Amino acid sequence: MPTTQVVHYDKLLTNISVGYTNDEYIASQILKEVPVDKQSDRYPVYGEEVFIAHDDRRAPGTDANEIQWTYSDDTYFCEGHALRTRIPDEVKENADDVFDLEADATNLVSEGILLNKEIAASNLLLNSAIYDPQLVVPTGGANQPEKWDDPDSDPIALVSQMKELVHEKIVLDPNTLLLSYPVYNRLRRHPKLIALLKVKELSLIPLEMMKEFFEVDNIIVGRAVAATRTPGGASRKSYIWGNSAILAYVPKNPGKKVPAFGYSFMWNKDGKGAVQVRKWYEDGPQCTFVEAERWYDHKIVSSRAGVLFPDVVS
């Protein structure tokens, strides 16, 4: 084993990693981050007694009808996700002053972890098995609504219909519409949406106006891409969020008894935060190593608080 020297968690580099953001990543916007003090634990899932009409009549001298909460519980486990890179002594000694190699290394490994975090969120949320079966809406097939890039389709009516169904199930209006970039790009050119503007000079729907049309507080556009290697060695990029759309209830702030489609539990390891960066030097390869680590668990809290529209454009 190489001799390890000066092994420590670096506060400055951790702050760089925490502050590092990529506007293309949207996982934390649809799955709000919840800091937790334990790597794994249980959390309560309350029943629906609040929506049940109980007999509240009380005769003189008798006790009131007693009712109870019921709840089950679920669990989370914040798995560690880490990447490292090395800075050889030769590179460090020949780098110009304009380069901050340790900060650049921190951004590199942070980007890798955030990319995987985004992919994990999309793999979870684009899986139809996690949804209430009534809340998965395929399009383009026989006896199915048209795909949203079909001029005859009516995405607003379809989303409105599904909003009503979600409200019936959770008594809350879904307030967030996630659109992959291909879906967003076609919707903003949809003739029925443009007709609502009644302004011929506009050929694209502004995002703020699209919120009004769909009656949601937020529209999130999934623009991030991931590259895969082809057999020939070239890279091929594809949109992480595919050609799909998701309608969901996302609370402004997570908390106890706050319903949500899903959360991302973030473990506050050792009280130092869910994101930590450490660096150390090894004599053998004569390199400084920089490693970033995050602990999180993407978790669906209510399968009835979200609607999946898979592959809504061709």
Question: Which descriptors would you attach to this protein?
Answer:
alpha+beta; 6-stranded mixed beta sheet; 314 residues
In short, what is this structure?
The chain has eight helices and 14 strands. Strand 8 and strand 9 form a beta hairpin. The N terminus is likely disordered.
Tell me what you see in this structure.
By secondary structure, the protein is an alpha+beta fold. It contains 8 helices and 14 strands. Helix 1 packs across helix 4. The longest helix is centred in the middle third of the chain and has 25 residues, at 101-125. It starts with a strand and ends in a 5-residue tail after the last strand. The model is unreliable at 1-6 (pLDDT under 50).
Q: What would you call the structural class?
A: alpha+beta
The amount of helix comes to: 25-40%
| Coarse shape | flat
Strand content: 25-35%
Distance between the termini: 54 Å
Total helices: the number is 8
Gyration radius from CA atoms, angstroms? 24 Å
Largest sheet: 6 strands, mixed
Order of helices and strands: EHHEEEEHHHEHHHEEEEEEEE
* pLDDT < 50 stretches: 1-6
Tally the beta strands: 14
* Average of the residue pLDDT scores: 89
Helix/strand layout:
Elements: E1 4-9, H1 11-19, H2 27-30, E2 32-36, E3 40-46, E4 71-77, E5 79-88, H3 89-94, H4 101-125, H5 155-170, E6 176-180, H6 181-187, H7 191-197, H8 207-214, E7 218-222, E8 225-229, E9 235-239, E10 245-248, E11 262-267, E12 275-282, E13 287-300, E14 306-309
Parallel strand pairs: 2-11, 6-7
Antiparallel strand pairs: 1-12, 3-4, 5-13, 6-10, 8-9, 10-14, 11-13, 12-13
